[in-house]
Design a protein that fits this description.
The structure is a homotetramer.
Chain A (H helix, E strand, L loop, with lengths): L12 E6 L3 E6 L2 H6 L2 H4 L21 H21 L6 H13 L8 H8 E2 L3 H15 L5 H7 L7 H6 L5 H14 L8 H6 L1 E4 L8 E5 L3 H19 L2 H23 L10 H8 L2 E2 L6 H8 L3 H11 L5 H11 L5 E4 L6 H17 L5 H11 L1 E7 L11 E3 L5 E3 L9 H4 L3 E8 L8
Parallel strand pairs in A: 3-6, 5-9
Antiparallel strand pairs in A: 1-2, 4-5, 7-11, 8-11, 9-10
Chain lengths: 437, 437, 437, 437
């Protein structure tokens, strides 16, 4: 046995084992301290894909892993940029990592479904900013630079592009991650290759410098856009996901109705943080109110699920039915339509559903018409894979140093087609009802 | 455009996309109906590794995916056995799939940590049996054969071995799955190879027939044992996992103290299903009581987490501190000891912790001694990778048709070593306290 | 120890371990016997990507693995079709497997580069047919049905579609496989998903029945087309691959010149089977000559590489230089051009290269002009990802049973763009020469 | 369009796409220049697993990829060591990379089978050293430090341990790589984890400093040993691999017999570089002879395979039969024996094989006895997973700084068992002969 003569040096990095990216090294001090905050730990209780886990059994991953992953990719891309001659100071490095880690911190539970329901006009990026500011105060201004990058107010704007654009670390991580956990291998993006072909042009990285893709990365980027499109239509906007979204919104609307009418309906047995949002009609201007902030940061998936579980025993049979359906994954059917339904169609369908509600004892005849609002829904899925005109458009540099927006390069036959905005109307209704055309 | 002349045949299988095994085909009728029961859907809200997700960020997967996975492997192994000449009737096929799907249905939230805390003498297999019986009643006896296989009362005992032995579909799936989600690649087991080398001996599969491994599979099985050992020490019994377990148990003990003393402590704001178990001192004989069964099947991770979140604002500073620590992953430190601590040591350490509790204002001097019970813990991790003597031991057939228990084959140098039971005592205490040796 | 009472049944399947698809089960008798023929074993000595391994170090895989893989996918798709109600007889099953296994048996070494060089007007499919016929004779007509499927002369034409169309088992396997071995993850195709969505319409599978894709598979197919496009431009037509192709063709042309002129040049020390093709000017009508067939089936990568190695010491400095460059991977540079070069440009460049040949002592002044043929090349890469008009076009069935060609479905925004034929002219020249624009 | 104001900086790294490790970055200048040498390019024509590709269809990978991979892991481990406080100079970094890249440069074709056949007393490490010296001369002494590290003559011996020990970059890469290409997933080693737990003790890295593993890496190392053991018995010493080895050696012996006897036998049509070794009886003292070195570095798999293909048409029916068997993978059978055969057994078996040779017309009666030497073989497979006493043993450091040899740590129950040397005798004979016990 050999006695150690000097103490083992504490590694300046803490290692997380991530199934997607392998080992992720987290710098100690600021970044690790941020991870330890309640705001970031809360992301461990918010599933990344909302109701998606009810369709893809493996998609139970949370926003916490995504936050770590986006930060890990930020490390990778900064290493690539430095290698290609763009200097990055240690302060900028830390700020960029912090911004990547915290960029989604404002997401709430079942965010895609609920954010507009809980606070009207809400956008999670605004809440991320509110929470970033709060953390910045708590950390004595250590996040000033990260905040500037987040706001696109930093003097070297390419940092903002890495945090928020059409080809940022957020998108690269979430596509790769969601593809991994859903088992949808076609959504797998060549993250490594795309990052390897990124550079800053001009290389010094001043106020005019922007992220560009070397021409050899064009196909990988095109693949990324197609993969993103596939993930939207096959995962994020999957018919059963839309059905789950509908059910969740219907439950909320029903509970709100009870709360406003002062009828019981079981609403009072819900989680306090959730009730706060159901009782108060908040809008985007309230985001910065301390009580809103506090309620928001204490709200997560467990409050929503716990509450819905309680509502299964509500004395309102409609609420009980909706809640039971959600918990036991007994969703309505979603059918895509070639065009939005006509008024005559919706009228006819509403009648059919009302009849069924009465026939099955769910509603009394007097309420059946009104109750169809919870059992029948119309909406449309919308997605554009790429917006050439948007600020965060993707630019490509060829070997002569010429820079073009992606859809203007000769190699991307398919990109223009992808910029088309697609919209698919759909109707959501009980499986037992056979809608007449 | 071509009009279809006949309707598309509804596939007799429903497909689940699983990131671990790829596409899993679920036969419609009984098996799919079982998946739709509240008992099985509840597994979607119970994480497979309890507090493990707080150590391995990807390990957020639930027992639902594992149930599907074990069933999928059962399909695979039955196909292999049939190909090698062992007949399996359609009824046996369905029964074996059902038994694999339901084998873990009795697990509760944070099962590893809590099962003995909630119901003394509890074993999840007993509860699985209770729930299997309940489902069997509901399905009009359709699970009779599955139940017999589960109980090892079926006339062809090899089915029971596939459900419950030292090399069953349960273990093969959970090791593969937990390795996948934790990112601990060394735990990856060659499930496909092991299953391919399984056969029934004698092949007809009567009451004497048992599962044996062809000799060429010996190394793969040895690898499986080593991988299992590694997963125990690096994942299931990881120091930080043990620290999380300790904290969870300490919280429960504290709440129970309040409930029994009639002091408030915030216990009353908890989830009702959770409170049921905290208030009543139940033991294994109560499992079959309808109220216990009902409370149990409505209990999941959301109740536990929701309750702990509420207790963060308890007026008992100890409970509030413990709850806050759990929610924000501010665990105690676990240190392994070469041998169990002496009485003098534990006395000394208890004093240190008590002093710290007073100094930090957590306890009044009068209670500090008693409060150390929640801040200081002694226990030991235990694991044996393989038990040669156990009923479910692994047997190998060589090409002459001779069958030997695994550790008796010449090729498995390491197996005997693996049968050794290992035990590692440890102490758990606040990081701020520096224990004196 | 237990004595076996009955011998272990020999499994009717032989298992191959394939890194791409996992375990591949090969039925014994005909299929395994075919694998054991010299014609199929020869594929073990022919790399799938020709010179590709000199660009992607992992791409050393041969056509043998691809043949097995295409056969394995045929097993998968037939299982899916049968499950959806299309009957397949055991004879058809075997024939389809044989046809998938043998579909590429006519490929020769560095096939992409050399097939037209060795035999003018050659097409590997014609040679595959010749060899299939030869095997059929040897196996006493056992391949009659496979041959009919290969020829699209079988009464149920969907089998031919699975063997040869724009979405056949060949393409699905080679894209997945080449993506795997090159490490180009973006080329990874969701083979499993595509196969799961295939069905025969109408389901009975008579002479009108064709393979269709269920609408839910549309995105996966679109992804397949994009992945194929990416593999073409990033792998199969990679600039360095083109440079390797050029060099190989230049070597052949130089040796042929010597053989025809009767000058030595080292040509005579080459592999006999290779020399046979260099000496005789063969064309497609000769494929069925027994001597051609024999020489062809004895020719593989080792003959080509062995010969080039010998030519490194040729007394012709040009041949020696070209051979040395190939063996040591010292390729010329390939530069893509915006348009084909003008006559003036090619004249100027030819002069530059001739000057360099003289200056470096490679050519005497008198031959320099002629020698530029080996050091300077013009060509164009061509690829169309999908041809909507081609016989093997892809058809999609929606849930109402309507069938449409892929580019006519509403969901495939990008497909039309992909049907555009792309052509990229390029020039290939020594790196030491700086071509003037 | 934007004009570039400054030229794009040429990246100091060249990227290789490796299916095993992803992108491998190769520093330009020395390391890239070394890769471009004929000595390293030759590794592209030498399969890593010799005849292994005839058993595992995916195992067609060459020593070139392994050389790159070992170098890539060296980059990784040096980054880890530096992060933990062990300084590494740029010169040391380059030298260590060069040594890792070149460590196996002395391997020849079918090395495991042939090295002792071609040059008696040969060891590939000696030849690696010879070639390293030659390269060092050519590069003007640029490899002095790499050579010192290779020889364990460098002042900081931990570098040598990373190049050559029981846990070096060579082993880590080849196990990971061979597991990948064979599809034997159980052989997958947690390379990343092992490397992350390596450190130098004492950290400064002077002449006493050695590589140690942090205690938390113990299980990963144990897993590595078990995986290595499995790869030996299931891949490297697979029965069919042994049969291929036997056949290859029998062919060589037969050709040598002809060459020495001056009989034709077809030997003269072989590849010149291969004939050089068959004609001359060389031993280890000849390694440094220029003609031997030159012949050796021009020899690769293509020479061996080309020659065997020619010998298929030898007028010696035994040689023709053996050659045809090798090319068409028609191997003999290998059967493991419980103990080495007795003289009576070998005599009996020899008689059986001789009878079969005569009966099948392979041998005339007069030669049959002698010809059995080529058709019947006895040998034994040998492997020890770990040698605790060997110089390159593995040492573990616990958190108190105490260092112990691996098998002395309390956590590695199985390691002692693994140190046992295992030996399995076997016999190799034609499948048509049924050996009598």
């Amino acid at each position: 046995m050999i006695r150690r003569t000097s103490p083992i040096v504490l590694s300046p990095l803490k290692i997380f084992s991530d199934p997607v990216h392998g080992f992720i090294s987290v710098p100690r001090r600021l970044i690790l301290d941020l991870i330890q905050t309640p705001e970031v730990q809360r992301l461990r209780r918010i599933r990344q894909l909302g109701v998606g886990y009810l369709v893809f059994p493996g998609a139970e991953h949370t926003r916490f892993g995504h936050a770590l992953g986006a930060m890990a990719l930020m490390q990778d891309v900064l290493a690539v940029l430095q290698e290609k001659g763009t200097p990055v100071t240690p302060e900028e490095h830390t700020a960029a990592l912090a911004a990547a880690l915290l960029h989604d911190i404002g997401h709430g539970p079942f965010s895609h479904t609920l954010e507009h329901e809980l606070i009207s006009g809400f956008h999670h990026e605004k809440m991320s900013r509110v929470l970033l500011c709060r953390l910045n105060e708590r950390f004595g201004g250590a996040l000033d630079r990260a905040l500037a990058m987040f706001d696109d107010a930093y003097e070297r704007p390419f940092f903002h592009q890495l945090i928020s654009s059409q080809l940022d670390m957020d998108r690269l991580d979430y596509l790769r991650r969601d593809s991994f956990y859903t088992g949808v291998v076609e959504g797998r993006v060549g993250v490594e290759r795309i990052i390897k072909t990124m550079c800053v042009h001009p290389a010094e990285g001043g106020p005019e410098a922007r992220i560009v893709i070397e021409a050899k990365g064009t196909y990988a980027v095109e693949n990324f856009l197609i993969a993103r499109r596939l993930m939207y239509w096959q995962v994020y906007l999957h018919k059963t996901v839309l059905a789950g979204d509908h059910l969740l919104r219907a439950i909320l609307a029903r509970v709100r109705g009870h709360l406003e009418a002062g009828t019981g309906g079981g609403g009072t047995t819900a989680a306090p943080a959730f009730l706060f949002f159901l009782k108060n009609r908040l809008d985007a201007r309230d985001l910065d109110r301390p009580d809103v902030r506090d309620a928001y940061t204490s709200l997560d998936d467990t409050d929503v699920l716990f509450s819905i579980k309680q509502w299964q025993t509500s004395d309102d049979p409609v609420l009980a039915d909706l809640a039971r359906r959600f918990i036991n994954r007994d969703f309505f059917r979603v059918t895509f339509l070639e065009r939005p339904p006509t008024e005559a169609q919706t009228e006819r369908w509403r009648g059919q559903v009302a009849d069924w509600l009465v026939a099955t004892g769910r509603s009394e005849a007097a309420h059946a018409e009104a109750d169809t609002a919870f059992y029948l829904g119309f909406d449309a899925s919308r997605h554009a894979a790429y917006d050439e005109a948007e600020a965060g458009s993707i630019r490509v540099i060829d070997r002569h140093g010429d820079v073009r927006e992606l859809s203007r390069t000769t190699d991307t036959a398919a990109v223009t087609a992808l910029t088309r905005f697609e919209e698919k109307p759909y109707v959501c209704y009980p499986k037992a009802v056979e809608l007449r055309r």
